[in-house]
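Section 3.1: Structural characterization of target chains.
Under the original work plan, the team committed to producing a structural model for every single-chain target entering the pipeline before any wet-lab resources were allocated. The record below documents one such target. The sequence was received from the expression subgroup and is listed exactly as submitted; it comprises 446 residues.
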Amino acid sequence: MIQMTPHASAGFERSEENRSMGCEQDDEPPAETAETAGSADGDPRVIDQALQPWLPATRPKVQLETLSILTWPTGVAVDSPAFDHFLAAVVSPFCATYPARSTQLLYRRSLTYFFRWWGQARAREGQPDSFTEQLLHGYRASLTLQQREGTHKRLEARTINVYLASLRAFCQWLKRTAQIPYNPMSAVKGMKVAKRFVRDSLTEPEVERLIATFDVTVTDPAAQEQVLRDYAMTLLWVSTGTRSIELARAQRRHLNHRDGHPILYLHRKGSSSAEQPVVLAPWVLDALTAYFRMHDRRHHGGGPTEPFRGPLPEHPLFAWLRGPGKYHSKRQNVAQTRGCRPLGVGSIQAMMRHHLEEAGLSRLINPDTQSVRPISPHSLRHTAATLALKHGATIRQVQSMLGHADIQTTMIYLHEKDRILNAAEHTIPDFSVPLPTVCDRREHHE
């Protein structure tokens, strides 16, 4: 259980009603005899009959909707030292239970937002001082009315569900550590998200149009390094279906050989290290090698280097163009102290959006439905899965390539492909009649 320091005595303590719910463990019951152990035999009716004489005549009913789990301390204001201490002493240990740094930051930001909302809503909207289901329902309602900063658009349902999921996980952690008797977020449902098909993917000619936007013949060293980096990243993206976060996490030391094939171990979403491999095609490895050599020649003073176990094994796979000494490292990382900083997710996605727009692929029109195809950087992941299935890969092979924990997630690609190609609509007979030719109005006047 969390030990509250004297400074935290003004913090968020469990209410008296919460303590009376049975957080304290009762004494050990006496050992049952062989006769009583064998009589019930697990039959619920026998157990109910045996317990009936022991039950009180009247039982107090607990209203979970109004049951106070935590109470906002008197005199504690938002951004006060006591409030900051609560975040550091309680919220931070919960976030530290997740291995991924990005998950820790996301949950801490979401929980900080909730507690700030609670503290401010007490005075502004008359929200209660007690942490109850009613309060949580009010928080959910406020998220549906919240607008994004700088815009007048409200939060999307998926974004709201992220805020609710972080609070749900926090309450579950408090319950697991015996701080609260039950998880009040279990009664708060997430926003309904409309089901839809997989985001559209690129065809093979469209992939060739995308690759053609990279001018690998440039001679300026800085421009050449950038083109080779983005070109190699795009080939890796479209051939293995990696996520943008996995590209940002990749390092050179994650490259290896197995059974005569070059592989790259990926730090998958939700994992703590690079464990799952993807196989690199020879043309992808050639592009990576060309980028490594250009980068090392510009920033590390060396000649051509091997792509595996080079002079900087902890070097990011894809780095910024700035040279050594341009960054202040927050950690003792060899690559960062030498100035090679990994590209972030935002930069990777911005690069791909730029090339999709340059290739004219950002807003494609479906000729059959005249609707806009939803093409985005993440579409390259769907492109890899679709092309693999098209050229004979099994659903299990595609699952392994994409790193899906549940094959049902991968089956979405197969279902969509089969739904269109083998649709029942194709079997309906043609009942149409010949239509008269409709000429254009301008041609009629001519």
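The beta strands are 255-258, 261-266, 276-279, 363-365, 372-374.
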